[in-house]
């Protein structure tokens, strides 16, 4: 008797017919241990029980084992399917499901059960929604504030391009940190981030500061995609012109042969040089290393960020 087997949906349909790209062998400084601790299993179980997605899993983050061992998970709201098709990203692309009305309460419940003092909330791009998903960010922030009022909240949002009022609504919800990643240098946007626009992302960061000058802003870059050092320095200058407080720089890691290839692995010494340069340009906080990611050590980094601002203000009034 014939058995009908329905094939699983392709995770990256827009990349399926692309030729394979080469995958460089990872250097020793980029290797991490497999996530096998009991805390990892417990965190995964909690996320499934609450029907939540994490960018840690969907984006294949190399720091999952380290972060989840400490029960630090970055929740990804608005589903697990993205409307964009960035060449670097492992999140599935396609037609998203409807918005889960219970998601904000589930996120707040997870924050409480994990005992998080600082939480990072991100999302897929939802170009299909009139507000790009901004209202779900607002509801999630409000739910966390209600159940865990002492928890500081960091959000990592899409660009909300062509979504009037979205940035204003999210800023009005008063997250402690507003993060939006530029991801790469302008020259590489057409191939690496084709659905986005560099200056739209830069303007979003500037808009946040315009709306609330005291809100911390943060943005990140991947390196190893073929960018030049001088281009990274120009992006740093652009970020500072938008008054971005915190920059993260990490090594791009290729998820599959269908994704953009790693052109080179940046050495730890080169990352140290980027740290020195970024600090000299006036960023309050800099995190630059091969395994740096937007939400890696976010709680500790937020404490450093707040202390750096207090020290800056104290120096001005001394």
UniProtKB/TrEMBL annotation:
Binding-site residues, [4Fe-4S] cluster 2: 82, 86, 89
Pfam families linked: LIAS_N (PF16881), Radical_SAM (PF04055)
Region Disordered, annotated ranges: 1-24
GO terms, biological process: protein lipoylation
Top enzyme class: transferase
CDD domains per record: Radical_SAM
Domain spans labelled Radical SAM core: 68-284
Record pathway: Protein modification; protein lipoylation via endogenous pathway; protein N(6)-(lipoyl)lysine from octanoyl-[acyl-carrier-protein]: step 2/2
EC nos: 2.8.1.8
Name listed for the protein in its UniProt record: Lipoyl synthase
Organism per entry: Ferrovibrio terrae
């Amino acid at each position: 008797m014939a058995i009908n087997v329905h094939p699983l949906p392709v995770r990256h349909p827009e990349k399926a017919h692309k030729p394979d790209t080469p995958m460089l062998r990872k250097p020793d400084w980029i290797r991490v241990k497999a996530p096998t601790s009991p805390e990892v299993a417990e965190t995964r179980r909690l996320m499934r029980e609450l029907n939540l997605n994490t960018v840690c899993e969907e984006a294949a983050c190399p720091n999952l084992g380290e972060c989840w061992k400490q029960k630090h998970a970055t929740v990804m709201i608005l589903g697990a399917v993205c409307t964009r098709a960035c060449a670097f990203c492992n999140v599935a692309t396609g037609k998203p499901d409807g918005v889960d009305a219970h998601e904000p309460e589930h996120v707040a419940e997870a924050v409480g059960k994990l005992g998080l003092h600082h939480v990072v909330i991100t999302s897929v791009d939802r170009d299909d929604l009139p507000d790009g998903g901004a209202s779900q960010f607002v509801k999630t922030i409000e739910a966390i504030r209600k159940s865990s009022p002492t928890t500081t909240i960091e959000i990592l949002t899409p660009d909300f391009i062509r979504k009037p009022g979205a940035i204003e609504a999210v800023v009005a919800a008063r997250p402690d940190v507003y993060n939006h990643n530029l991801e790469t240098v302008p020259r590489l946007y057409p191939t690496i981030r084709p659905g986005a626009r560099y200056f739209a992302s830069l303007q979003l960061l500037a808009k946040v500061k315009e709306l609330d000058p005291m809100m911390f802003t943060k943005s990140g870059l991947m390196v190893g995609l073929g960018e030049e050092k001088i281009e990274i320095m120009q992006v740093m200058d652009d970020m500072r012109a938008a008054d971005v407080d915190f920059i993260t720089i990490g090594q791009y890691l290729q998820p599959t042969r269908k994704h953009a290839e790693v052109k080179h692995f940046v050495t730890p010494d080169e990352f140290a040089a980027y740290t020195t340069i970024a600090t000299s340009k006036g960023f309050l906080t800099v995190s630059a290393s091969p395994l740096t990611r937007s939400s890696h050590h976010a709680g500790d980094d937020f404490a450093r960020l707040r202390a750096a601002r207090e020290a800056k203000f104290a120096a001005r009034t001394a």
